[in-house]
Amino acid sequence: MTKQAKKKQISLQRLYQYLITPILSKDEGIDPETLTQLALSTLGQISIYRNSPGISTLLKSIANDLQITDKRLEQTIFGCQFKNPIGLAAGFDKNGVAAGIWDHFGFGFAELGTVTFHAQIGNQRPRLFRLAKEKAALNRMGFNNNGAAVMRTTLERQSLISPGKRPLTIGLNFGKSKITALEKAPEDYFSSVALLAAFADYVVINISSPNTPGLRELQNANLLKRLLKHLKKLPDCPPLLVKIAPDLSNEDIDELAKVALQERISGLIAVNTSTNRLGLEKRLITQTGKTLAEEIGGLSGQPLQGRAIEVLRRLRTQTGQELPLVGVGGIDSPKCAWERITAGASLLQLYTGWIFQGPILVPQILEGLLSQLEKHGLQHISEAVGSELPWT
Fold first, then answer.
1. Which of 171, 253, 287, 379 is deepest in the core (most CB within 10 A)?
2. Residue 307 phi/psi, 5° resolution?
3. Which phi and psi angles does 74 have, rounded to 5°?
């Protein structure tokens, strides 16, 4: 690690620990959804006025602290250019309010959404819970978002640079509207993608959230084929990826990989949140007085690490070098990121780990990846993908 990076790490980490860590160190306190909304409201205003003198100076300072630029980390995957392999996962910026500034936080790409064609209020609150000790979260948000038409207006208001010319790659993540019947899912997804395709470097079909009734049935091979064929009718459809659940059986994972290859989609994202409680069945949610086994919703964060890498390795075995894989789920350290890349992921996404560790996690991971490349005598990050080289 360079002296400059070490200096950044110390100053930013102290600030984050002083302001945010006390809130995240316990389950109770400020509601996590309220905290997220407050952050996004601020970031949304910053994105709109990012070119004004005072705000542009602030963003340059943030970028100076968090961005790591190195040719060894740059990749072109499914036709998109990534300055580095670390992205913001879908679920945080659901409505794309901060689309214009995520590069300043060190990300090589950001995935916005999940967005649905029809606006949705989501499930009843409270619906997002911190599991502080486990560095995890339980969510049953239910695709709460303003809808595809409003997202289009939101992105237009930010005056984004055209896809392919931006400082970072932007993906848009799409879900099925709750009011839409399962048999009408292809038309529902098509309508959303048609509205927003012009803003996307790539699009993701989310068929794996546990919080929309029946959604995961779309992971069935025949239903997925029908959905993908319908979406491909869209003129100039951006690169198309599918996000899958960690709770699939090995046989279902194999079948899904087969469909992905047959339909020639651009990539798979593994994995979404889990309905499996992963050994935490008796963990009490103090806000509700129920155990995790009694609560509905998807589990994310550290407990998901083991299953996430298992699914990734199985997909790598089934698809070989033919299909780019994106790893997500519990990535919260440079070591974890390296292990996910060497298991077969070309790109990685952060969410829960980024919240608990803070913005410094992105440059920490990038510095860690560069260090491992040097230790293993590799010239480029692509050489590490699927190599199973150990963290040293």
1. 171
2. -65, -35
3. -80, 140
Tell me whether residue 128 is in a domain: no
Backbone angles phi, psi at 376, to 5 degrees: -95, 5
Residue 13: the pLDDT is: 61
Neighbour count for residue 218 (Cβ, 10 Å):
20
266 among known catalytic residues: no
Residue ranges with strand state E in the chain = 75-77, 80-82, 86-88, 109-115, 128-131, 136-139, 169-174, 202-206, 240-244, 267-270, 284-285, 290-291, 298-301, 325-328, 347-350
**247, 276 contact by CB (below 8 A):** yes
Number of domains, the chain: 1
The percentage of the chain sitting over the pLDDT mark of 70, rounded to a whole number, equals 96
Count of CA atoms in the C-beta half-sphere (13 A) of 384: 30
pTM of the complete model? 0.96
Q: For the chain, what is the mean pLDDT?
A: 95
Query: Average pLDDT for residues 121-142, to the nearest whole number?
Result: 97
Q: Which residue in the list 177, 192, 208, 209 is annotated as catalytic?
A: 209
**CATH number assigned to the domain comprising residue 168:** 3.20.20.70
Instruction: Determine the Cα–Cα distance for residues 123 and 296; give it in Å rounded to an integer.
Output: 11
3-state secondary structure of 154: helix
pLDDT of residue 304: 98
Using alpha carbons only, what angle is made at residue 372 by residues 370 and 376, rounded to the nearest 5 degrees?
120
- Residue 278 included in any domain: no
Query: Measuring CA to CA, which residue among 82, 85, 88 is closest to residue 40?
Result: 88
Question: In the structure encoding, which two tokens stand for residue 268, read together?
Answer: 């798979």
Copy the structure tokens of residue 28.
Answer: 């109770």
Number of Cβ within 10 Å of residue 55's Cβ equals 16
**Enclosing domain of residue 82:** 3-120+141-272+300-383
Q: pLDDT, tens digit, for every residue of 327-359?
A: 999 999 999 999 999 999 999 999 999 999 999
Which pLDDT tens digit goes with each residue over 6-55?
444 445 566 777 888 899 999 999 999 999 999 999 999 999 999 999 99
